[in-house]
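Hey L., structure's done. Input below.
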Amino acid sequence: MYFFYSMFTAAGVILLSPYFLVKGIAQGKYLRNLPERLGRRFPAELRADAAVGPGAIWVHAVSVGEALAALPLAQSLKRRFPERRLVISTTTATGQAVARERMKFADAIFYFPFDWTGPVRRTLRTVRPALIVIFETEIWPNFLREARRAGVPVIFVNGRISDRSFRKFSRAMVFFGDALRVFLRGVLHDATLYLMQSDEDARRVVALGASPARVEVAGNMKYDLAPPAQSSLVTWLQAELARYGRGPLLVAGSVVSGEEAAVLEALSAVERRWPDALLVLAPRKPERVGAAAAFIEQSGRAVVWRSRLHLDGASPSALADRPGQPRGVLLLDTMGELAAVYGLADTVFVGGSLEPAGGHNPLEPAVVGKAPVFGPSMENFRDVAAEFLDAGAAIVVHSGAELGATWVALLDDSDRRSRMGRAARELVERHRGVTAATVDRVAGLLAKPQAEGL
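Output:
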């Protein structure tokens, strides 16, 4: 079965290679990290001294959201085990950028290998891990098998199985029958421990084949998200809003394809009451920046590019009124600044939720006391979204018109806005502590001889 899986994934890469080639040439994606993902070339810091001292702790986070959520865990692991090398891998280029910006304390940061035997073995030999920590539930059969063969325990932390993924797995098992069921059970048995976010996530991973003895409900580590540090952009923006009388400030974060028009429609509703309102729009993916700019211009507004701003005050302000010129929307086309900007907002929208994209992290605004507004597609944060709604700490909308009406209602009622913001922050504080408990479980695994098992 592993042979067929490897052949299937290889065929997929071959079929998609023209797309990867075009993207690689046009945007610099994929091609630069290809040798690393094939296990043929590694960053110098990953190779340096890898064979000296105790085995490394390897933390894997797929993309931006996982990298941000893994930050407190990575920091805690480095403090707890200073004698061990801490290495971080990501799958996406955006995740890599966030990891390099936020995890400078790590000994090495690199790309996760393709899930083929050769790249996996070469990477394991180079990293020489004592333990592998995979954030959420990214299951790679060859990687898990080779880690087991090398005697390296693998622990899944903050594990979750989304509604969509569980439906796909369930349908596949019905279609392929016992062959896939037995294969999945073997794959999941290769991991040492699954620390899942909720009872439902634990039930689902067991239903897919994980041993109940290896599955625990640990809670959601994303609640341990630290409040963002004050940034130069926030300092500049705060001064500019006061200087030119702009406001209220609306922040639409992690916006995906299909949501730009809805957010701009909502802005129009707010502008009818508050003509000086300013919108900060942050696309989820860098490749959506151009399309978002086009939507802004089509709406009759100017694009204020964050990457082109001079924050030292030496240039004319991008937010100042210019006779005959349209008001601007601040397009956040940079990485790592959204969380801090949420703290300055009067009201927010969390994207990836009006479109069927599963939603993005509502805890980022909540940790700075802002009640998240999001759409109905929050499968990736199912339990978090439900608890926030039950506590009156969030609002769900279904269209741009509803978003506009909700923003207007919140801006009209400062007491309600403050009350919801406090409730959101209190929920975050109530659920903190999962990271510390997870570090304790990691310490236990590192101290336990593998012959003893669990």
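The first helix runs from residue 2 to 27. Residues 232-430 form a domain with the Rossmann fold fold (CATH 3.40.50.2000).

-- N.
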